[in-house]
Amino acid sequence: MATNLADTVTVNPSEETIEIGQLRIHFLVTGERSNGSMAVFEMMVPAGAKLAAPAHSHEAYDETIYGLNGVLTFTVAGTRIDIAPGEALCIPRGAVHRFDNFSQADATALAVLTPAAIGPAFFRESAAAINAAAGGPPDRETMLAIYRRHGLTPAPPSAM
After folding, report:
1. CB 51 within 8 A of CB 23
2. Helix (H, G, I), strand (E, B) or coil at 24
3. What is 10-152's CATH number?
4. Does residue 1 carry a pLDDT above 50?
5. How many helical (H) and strand (E) elements, i.e. helices and strands, does the chain have?
6. Model pTM greater than 0.90?
7. How far is CA 86 from the centre of its chain?
């Protein structure tokens, strides 16, 4: 039975924006829509926001970040790298990384994961744990379990 491609091709298949503390994630392409080849999402990070979750690495996919507006500071393998509009950063598999917005302006970046090893479910679960902390630090054991379940390796606190 032949598949009609017109039935599988859509623009912006996800209308969901996931709020994780101050961070907002909006998926543009999910693994389900790309046959697992990639996931693409927009990250909106308010001025002064710091990532509430621990630094991490992943062995199953590479992550490329493209700055759209504002400046995000990524720390990759201990090196701080500012990503401004029009700049791209490739984070290879296995590199411990995190990001923060140290600037006075909101920042937005596009994240491309190849292949699509994680999707909206990871961010929904993370949101539940981080939002349950009501502004305080999330429960570390809960976050570690979410990370591991989705193929991310949390870095030890001393790694960053």
Report:
1. yes
2. strand
3. 2.60.120.10
4. no
5. 3, 11
6. no
7. 18
- The answer for residues whose C-beta is within 8 angstroms of residue 74's C-beta and 6 or more apart is 65, 80, 81, 83, 89, 91, 97, 98, 99
Residue 101 near residue 52 (C-beta atoms within 8 A): no
Q: In what order do the strands lie in the sheet with 107-114?
A: 17-20, 23-29, 39-45, 107-114, 62-69, 88-91
Tokens of 149: 């379940």
Phi and psi, residue 110, nearest 5°: -100, 130
Residue 19 host element (H or E): strand 17-20
Q: Which two tokens stand for residue 33?
A: 């829509």
Report the Cα–Cα distance between both ends of the chain, in Å, rounded.
52
Q: Provide the token pair at 57.
A: 């690495």
CA gyration radius, the chain: 16
Alpha carbon distance 150, 160 (integer Å):
21
Q: Which residue has the higher pLDDT, 9 or 124?
A: 124
Output the DSSP codes for 102-121: -SSS-EEEEEEEES----HH
Amino acid at 153: T
